[in-house]
Each structure stands twice: as C-alpha cells, then as structure tokens.
Amino acid sequence: MTDLQPLLRGAADEFLRVARGIGPAQLSAPTPCTEYDVRALLNHLLYWGPWLEAAVRKEETPSMEGGERAADLVHDDWQAALTTRVHGLLEAFASPGAFDGTAGGMPAEMVASMILMEWVVHGWDLASATGQTLHCDDETAGVLLVAAKAMAEQGRAHGIFKDEVPVARDAPALARVLAVTGRPPEWCVANVT
Question: Which residue range or ranges hold the Mycothiol-dependent maleylpyruvate isomerase metal-binding domain (predicted)?
Fold first, then answer.
C-alpha cells in the first residue's frame, strides 16, 4: 500500500501553484474538462471542498442542496478560499486514522485517491487552459493510473469520466491517466511533464 500522505502534499502544492498563476482574464477560458471553463472548474473545486473535508474528518457531511451549477463561489478572493480548502483537506489527512475505515460512505483510502486525482487532473486541466504546465512525479502518476483504472467503470456510469481515449502505450503515466479519464486526445499528450 502506497503512503498517500506525501503524494497528497506534493500534489496540493503544485495544484495551488497553478491556481496562483490564473489571472482574471483567464476565467472564461475553455478547459480539457469540456463541460467546464476555468471559472466553472474552480467553482466545482470550491463547492465540493467542504463535503470532502467533512468526509475525511469523519464528520457529518454538509447538505449539497442546489448543486454546484447554482453556486457562485469564484469571487475576488477565490484563490484564498481555494488555498483554505486545500490546506483544510491536508490537515484532515494528517489526523490519526484519516486513511482508515470509511469517509463519506466510501473507503477512506479511495477518497484520498479521488482527492489526489482532483488536484492532479483538474490542476492539469487548469494549467493547460491557462498556458501553464503542471508537474507530476512518476510515483504520483503511477498511483493515479492504478486508481483511474479502478474507478473508470463507475466514473463513466456516473458521468465523471468520459470514454477512454487512445494514447501510446509508452506515453508518460500522466498522459495515460488523462486518457483513462477521457480528456480529448489532443490535450492528453500536451503539457505533460
């Protein structure tokens, strides 16, 4: 079993670095996550943050009435709010027993993998949309590739993943993760380091 704690911390740092590089004029830019532009993707991350943190802390999760599309969470202080959310999740994962049992009705380790995927894959989406590069080390990408394949069928059934797209077998692990999640093929091999 891989220790996800250092991978989460590294992915969080890189995700926040990308977020700090997003300017106001880029909020309407399209992303490889085709149903979201930059603003909507940031809204998605801000919306689900409190639920995920409560789940990891094994507390009662907040009601998500209204849905993320009705929420408008990207204001002038969105970067500070996103930083608070990410740091809150890191603190939750630093708590004893955070990776044990269940979190929000799912295995806690699966939730950790999902959050790692959110930070890396959506971080890459944001980086690609705003002319940046997201760096993902081989260990993290390898863990995510295993997790993405394990989640793929359920992810597609719930509309979270699209159909897998073809990439070369020797493509970098991050490119293969992106392909499993169904990112458009022309994006999957761009901006991958």
Answer: 8-127
